[in-house]
Amino acid sequence: AETHYHDFVVEAKPVKRLCRTHNIITVNKKFPGPTLTVRNGDTLVIKALNKARYNVTLHWHGIRQMRTPWADGPEYVTQCPIQPGATYTYRFTIEDQEGTLWWHAHSKWLRATVYGALVILPKLGSPYPFPKPRHEVPIILGEWWDRDIISVLRQALFTGAAPNVSDAYTINGQPGDLYRCSSKGTFKVSVNSGDRVLLRVINAALNQQLFFTIANHQLTVVGADAIYHKPFATRVIMLGPGQTTDVLLTANQRPARYYMAARAYASARGAPFDNTTTTAVLEYNTARGGSSSTSRPLLPRLPAFNDTATATAFENGLRSIPSEAAKVPTKIDHSLFFTVGLGFVNCNPGPRCQGPNNTRFAASMNNVSFVLPRRTSLLQAYYNNIPGIFTTDFPPVPPLQFNYTGNVPRSLWQPRFGTKLYKLKYGSTVQIVLQDTGIFSTEDHPIHLHGYHFFVVGQGFGNFNPRTDPARFNLVDPPARNTIDVPVGGWAVIRFVADNPGSVWLFHCHIDAHLTWGLAMSFLVENGIGELQTVEPPPADLPRC
Ligand code: C2O
C-alpha cells in the first residue's frame, strides 16, 4: 500500500459561467477540485490550508474513517473549522472500499464549489469484478449559482421562502451547450468504436436529485457509493445529492456525437427547482483519427421531473453482490424509527426571521431540529468529557404517532431545537425506519450516514406498516450505500453494524437547505475493547474553535 501526500489550498478564484464572472471558493484554484486517485488499502495525507475568508472543513464523503474520525470533517461534529490562515492535515486509510466516492467542504454551503472526485482502485494486481474498461471518467453533477453562495444560504436560513434555486446544473463544472455562453467549455469524452468506458457518476448538487442518461446508449450499473453491485442494465440512473453510481457503457453505436445529460428529479410537490438540462458530449473518433463530426449531438430523452416510477425502478434494480450481502445483520439490537421532514418555527421578527407570520423554515428528525455546538466539536466534547455540549436522549421513536404522510395538523409543524445524540454500543446492530412526513410538504430526502455504509432492506410509499412491511424486507441482496434517498411520501429501512468506534457520526439529509434547517442527528458509537476497537488520539494540529 502507498501513502499519497497532497496540498489542498482553499482559496477564492474568479470563474466565468453563464456569461458572468464571479468569485467562488475552490481548492487549488480548480473547479471542480482535484481528483484523488488511490488504491484500496492506501493512506491519504491531505494538508489543507485555508486562504479563503470563510471558515472551512473538508469531508471525504463515504470514507469509513475507521478509528480516525478526526479526519471525517463535518464542522462542529468531528472538528472545529479551519479558520482563515490556518492549516489542518487530514490523514486516513482506505479499508475495504473500492469504487467512486468524493470529497467536499462540510461548512456552510461552501460545497457548492468546493468538491472533487475520490477514485478508489482495486489493490495492485486485483481485477475489477467486471470487464476492464478502456477509459475511466469521473462525471460530477453539480449546481451553479450566479449569486454568491453565502448570500443564497442566508436567504434559506432566515426566511420562510424556499432558497434561491440554482441558475444551472453542471457536469464537471460546466453547464454545457444548452446554456448561454457555455458551449466552449462543454465537457467531452472521446472514444473509439468498441471501447468500454467506466463513468464514475457523482451527484455533488447542493439541493437536487438528478436523473442522468446518454443518448442511444445502454448503461450497466456496476457499483454505488464505492461498493460493487450486481451488474444491471438501464437507460437512466437517478442520484440523490451525495450518492455515486458507477456505470459501464460500450461505444457500440454509429460513430457520431451523443449528449450525456442530467436534469432534476424534483419529487416535492410544488417546490421550485431549476428545470434546465446540463449536457456533456460522448464523441466517437473516426477511423482517420479526427472526431466524428461537428454536427449537433443527439439529445437523449430524459424522464419528466416528477417521474417517481423511473426513480423507483432504478433503485429497485440495485442489488448487492453475494460477498457484500453475506454481511446483512439479521438480529437487531437497536430498532429505531425516525421521521424526516420539514416544518416551520416561530421566531422573533427581525433580519433572522423573514418567513410569513414570523416563522422561518426548520427541519427535523423525530421532531428534533439539530443544532451544532459552537464552543467545541461534539467529538472533542465526547473524547475530553466536556459537559454541557450535547445530551444523549435522542428519541428512538417519534414523540407522537400520526398519519405521517397524510394531512398533518398545523400543531405538529413545529419541531424543537436540540443537540441530541443516540448512543450505540460498539458492535451492536441497528435498524432504522426512515419515514418521510407530510408536514409542510412530502419530499425525497437523501439521508447520509458518516463513518458507515448500510444495507437498504426495504422501501415503499405511504406510512411504514410495522406488521406487514418487515415480511417483505430484502435480506438476500439488498443494496449497500452510504446515502439513501428516502422516497417522496414514503419510507426506507436501513441496517448496519456499529463497528466504527469511539466517535460521533453525523446522520443527515444531504440536501444542504434541509441540513441547514436541522434535518440531522448524530450517533455516538462507544469504544470497544482493545486497540482495533478504540478511536485513535486526536492529531496535534486539530483546529480550535
Ligand atoms: Cu457528503 Cu455530511 O456529507
UniProtKB/TrEMBL annotation:
Stored PANTHER family: LACCASE-13, MULTI-COPPER OXIDASE
Main localization, broad class: secreted
Tagged with keyword Hydrolase: no
Lineage of the species this protein comes from: Eukaryota, Viridiplantae, Streptophyta, Embryophyta, Tracheophyta
A single MF term (Gene Ontology): copper ion binding
SUPFAM superfamilies linked: Cupredoxins (SSF49503)
Location(s) in or outside the cell: Secreted, Extracellular space, Apoplast
Name of this chain's protein: Laccase
